[in-house]
Amino acid sequence: MKRIPILLSVLLALAAFSSADTINLTSGSGKLYPFEVAPGFTFHFYGGGYGIAIPAALDDPAGSLWDCHPCDPTHFDSPLFFAAGDFTLDKQFVSGMIGFNAVSFVSSLAPNGVLTIKFTATPDLYLLLGISHQTGPFVWGNPNQHWYITAQFTPFSGSGLSGFYTFAGATFSSSSSPIPEPATIVLFGTGVLPILFGVRRRFSRTNPRIKGSMDGSLPNPDA
Fold first, then answer.
1. N or C: which end of the chain has fewer CB within 10 A?
2. Contact in structure between 161 and 70 (CB atoms under 8 Å)
3. What does the pLDDT look like over 154-191, one tens digit per residue?
4. Which among 48, 46, 132 is positioned nearest to 95, based on CA atoms?
């Protein structure tokens, strides 16, 4: 994490002297894993006809969420999440800065003791594509559009620290109603198909031509 101040200085210098046009990001999502759990964090950002993928962390991030081992989640400092530097080194070279600061939050406690906190946050994004930073910078296009972070915490079992928790993971979304994951969509589909099949069977009993076509035989019109 000692690299961050140097990297920020480089990024600010690039921003000052870059002649590239700023590209607005309009949507995105991400996931932050518990402390020292791979892949650390993942993010996807979209806007201006571009899709930026960060499949894994190359370095540890910073922020109140990552540093919660243990902590009191109701007294977080800003930022909630912060990462800077080189994010990918493969086909799509991504570098820059990703940060989120909490505006407000609501919390709920499950019977098993897991604490869930839903944050409303402002993003601080500055991303560049290419080894020579030739594309970008990419920034969050609408400063009035918040992000939504759902974080979970498990009770800390250490002695003498009552009311403390350990960070157990978080999801990030630019939408307050995230799009269901593909697995969820499949579950929806498997629930609908039996209903449709049952309706078709009931309908076929009242229509002999449909019944005949379903069992491979055609009804006799003279019968």
1. C
2. yes
3. 998 865 667 899 999 999 999 986 544 444 334 334 44
4. 132
